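Entry details:
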Amino acid sequence: MESIHLFLIASRQAEWLSVRQRVVAGNIANVNTPGYRAWDVEPFSSVLNRQPLVMARTSAGHMDIVDSDFESAEVRPEKSIEKTHSGNNVLVEEELRKGSEISREMSLNTAVVRSFHRMLMAAVKGG
């Protein structure tokens, strides 16, 4: 059976969410570090939009395809106008908001993969 693109995309998003969670955790860990600049990762939609999705070749009569692969998420300094007296620009509330956003996106990712897996299993079992 050919690989399904949905699983590749879901896997890449899970990797991206993991990277983003590490960056957010690093920002929170350095909330009291003088001069520390908050970081964030490039939005997943930007990473996804740069990568062309192609159809899988399932028959010799189909057009030839080139495998595509997603690039890893780019970590970049976060743009924030607020600074503390020490030059630190980490806002704990903003980082906590990002953390809950990451959790929500991971739950959605998992639910979509679980549903797609159930659909595939039903199709394979014939019911």
Observations:
- The CA atoms of residues 51 and 118 lie 27 Å apart.
